[in-house]
Design a protein that fits this description.
Elements: H1 7-26, H2 36-44, H3 48-53
Helix pairs in contact: 1-2
Amino acid sequence: MQCNVGKTDKTIRLIIGAVILLIGLVTKSWWGLIGLLPIMTAVFGYCGLYTLLKFDTLKKNAN
């Protein structure tokens, strides 16, 4: 697995994931666990959907 999630993308995913988890906790719904998906993709820096779509938000060095 090669990283394909950039820094800004990771930040957005962490925020969205945390909000979904918090909503799940407040409403006492197991659906809040869906928030783990964006959090895990941010932590590992890899998104399977990006790979399928050949999309990449990671900035590469120009060397």
